[in-house]
Q: What sequence folds into this?
């Protein structure tokens, strides 16, 4: 089984090392403008939040898969899991501030031992609950077979990665056998009503490019996914979100090893789209890590770039007014969210 | 002097051709953009045609660009190779069909 960069003690498991790479080469030489310079040119610096609409909680880095592009460096060998105490603190924040959307991610969020309790608690509130499920977890172990029914009972919106509608490209990115298991899991979600045209149970899919290029047109890909998945596997789903791979963690490792790093950075910078900036997720989202630290987004979390607030940077000292007046921390990886039609956890941003 | 005539990094500088002739260069890129939009043929179909033509004209930059574009648009490797065979077949056929000219000439020379 593939191991995480962390357990391999790879130099790239150091976030300082990643940031050093991201700020050297063509950016240091001045051949490429930095993200801050691009924002300044379009009068969008500093970037600041508009509101807090999505509270994204990364409940742990443990996962049953070790995907080649994973920005979390998640895997079975990762032991970082959010405690029940921290989940309770998150719950208190959600209630106190009347937050409307909670987005659970990981790793495989279902592998957190308190996941079922936490979702049931969230289910008592009148809010949107998103679970970013990798699908194969439903097939991984008997105790997870109840997930489709459990999601349905708690009206969870399920968002799942399926890099392509064929096995060869999906398995290349996510591991051998992942496609077949994902198809089986999708059929089980459909069987309880997810993704069906007449149903209120939402099932969205996520497309990640399988290589060092930007996603193709989201609407065109969605139409093709719908056609192929229906035709070949009788699967229905609601929307397809295209997400650009950001040059961090395991994808950065791949870019460097395959000698695609420089070319990819040029692609992202050349495709910088000022009108994609308004819709980036850090403007309406906060991200929390397993230890309760607060970040502008899940990518900043993985680079350990905490929010620019000394007094409100942990869920134990959560001051919403201060957080909403912060400046968002940016670096060169942010080009991934502003290239072409933009990229966020909800797909394109324009 | 450069060691090779073709540098893959030059592909991303393609847009710079407008530096020395802006008006005509911009017209080219506007037209190029229009050509690849959905029409009677989809943008996806056009990317595969472009891949085949890239091989016919043996342009390494075009091959890089439209290999990526074809993958991006979801073509499997087998389809991409079939497109290359189409280009190769036309090129091969273009040579062979001149065999008729050779035969005509030979007959005229009473060989």
A:
């Amino acid at each position: 089984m593939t191991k995480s960069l962390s357990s391999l003690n790879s130099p790239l498991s150091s976030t300082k090392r990643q940031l050093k790479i991201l700020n050297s080469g063509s950016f240091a030489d001045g051949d490429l403008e930095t993200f801050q310079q691009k924002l300044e040119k379009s009068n969008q610096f500093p970037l600041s939040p508009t509101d807090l609409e999505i509270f994204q909680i990364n409940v742990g880095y443990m996962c049953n898969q070790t995907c080649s592009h994973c920005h979390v460096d998640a895997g079975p060998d990762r032991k970082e899991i959010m405690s029940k105490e921290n989940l309770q603190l998150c719950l208190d924040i959600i209630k106190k501030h009347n937050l409307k959307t909670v987005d659970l991610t990981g790793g495989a969020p279902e592998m957190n031992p308190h996941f079922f309790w936490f979702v049931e608690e969230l289910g008592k509130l009148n809010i949107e609950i998103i679970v970013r499920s990798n699908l194969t977890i439903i097939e991984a172990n008997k105790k997870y077979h109840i997930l489709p029914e459990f999601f349905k009972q708690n009206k969870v919106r399920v968002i799942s990665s399926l890099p392509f509608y064929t096995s060869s490209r999906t398995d290349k990115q996510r591991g051998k056998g992942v496609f077949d298991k994902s198809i089986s899991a999708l059929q089980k979600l459909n069987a309880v009503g997810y993704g069906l045209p007449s149903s209120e149970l939402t099932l969205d899919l996520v497309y990640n490019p399988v290589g060092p290029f930007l996603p193709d047109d989201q609407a065109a890909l969605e139409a093709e996914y719908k056609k192929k998945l229906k035709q070949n596997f009788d699967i229905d789903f609601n929307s397809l979100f295209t997400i650009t791979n950001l040059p961090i963690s395991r994808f950065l490792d791949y870019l460097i090893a395959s000698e695609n790093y420089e070319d990819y950075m040029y692609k992202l910078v050349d495709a910088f789209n000022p009108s994609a900036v308004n819709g980036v997720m850090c403007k309406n989202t906060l991200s929390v890590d397993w230890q309760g630290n607060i970040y502008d987004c899940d990518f900043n979390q993985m680079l350990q770039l905490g929010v620019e607030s000394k007094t409100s940077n942990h869920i134990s000292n959560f001051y919403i007014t201060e957080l909403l007046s912060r400046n968002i921390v940016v670096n060169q990886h942010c080009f991934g969210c502003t290239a072409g039609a933009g990229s966020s956890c909800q797909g394109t941003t324009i | 002097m450069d060691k090779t005539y073709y540098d893959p990094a030059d592909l991303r500088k393609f847009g710079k051709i407008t530096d020395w002739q802006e008006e005509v260069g911009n017209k080219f890129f506007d037209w190029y953009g229009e050509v690849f939009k959905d029409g009677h043929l989809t943008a996806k179909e056009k990317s595969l045609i472009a891949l085949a033509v890239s091989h016919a004209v043996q342009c390494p930059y075009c091959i890089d660009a439209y290999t990526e574009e074809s993958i991006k648009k979801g073509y499997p490797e087998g389809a991409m190779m079939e497109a290359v065979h189409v280009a190769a077949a036309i090129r091969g056929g273009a040579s062979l069909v001149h065999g008729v000219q050779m035969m005509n000439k030979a007959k005229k020379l009473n060989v």
Summary: Chain B has one domain: 17-108.
